[in-house]
Amino acid sequence: MNQAPPFGPRDRSGRSDLTEVIQQVARGDKQAFSTLYGTLAPLVFGITTRIVRNRAQSEEVTQEVMIGLWRQAARYRPEAGSVITWAATIAHRRAVDRVRSAQASADRERAQAARERSPGYDEVAEQVQTRWESEQVRRCLRGLTELQRQAVTLAYYQGLTYREVVESLRTPLPTVKTRMRDGLIRLRGCMGVSL
């Protein structure tokens, strides 16, 4: 008993008549594409399922491959291999691309979740720097005279104008300006800030 080959009839040389079918598909023959689809879709689906391991995605990749065969039929070259080999190669590549794409997407999601769960290095470094600078400013402020410290604190930390500082300290304006200038010069020196 002679069984039919699994992917369509073959001529005497053993080559599948799929070469003729793909050439007809290249000319836009929808009936030929229907034959090609019926012959190759199970093979393509099997390849994609082994690689992707997700039935729904395997079906999507199979559809992409079959549409690609329809669009690229004119690019098939018999001397490079059989239609089955060509289709299997395309299916394998598309399935691997899908797996890589899914992996890259999952990696991006994990990285984003990790960034959202913990403060980044830059945030921690910035907090440490801010705390260190705040402590340094407090230490340097303690090195000022009482009038200098009060004038600088009122003007720079409470946002008061010169006039408001004068009223608050009940000190003449020229004295307040001088004390603030001297205080700022000492602060710069203490903090190591150059002009």
From TrEMBL:
InterPro entries: RNA_pol_sigma-70-like, RNA_pol_sigma-70_dom, RNA_pol_sigma70_r2, RNA_pol_sigma70_r4_t2, RNA_pol_sigma_r2, RNA_pol_sigma_r3/r4-like, WH-like_DNA-bd_sf. GO terms for biological process: DNA-templated transcription initiation. Residues 36-103 form the RNA polymerase sigma-70 region domain. Keywords: Sigma factor, Transcription, Transcription regulation. The keyword Transcription regulation applies. Residues 135-187 form the RNA polymerase sigma factor 70 region 4 type domain. SUPFAM superfamilies: Sigma2 domain of RNA polymerase sigma factors, Sigma3 and sigma4 domains of RNA polymerase sigma factors. GO terms for molecular function: DNA binding; sigma factor activity. Belongs to the sigma-70 factor family. ECF subfamily. This is RNA polymerase sigma-70 factor (ECF subfamily). It comes from Streptomyces candidus.
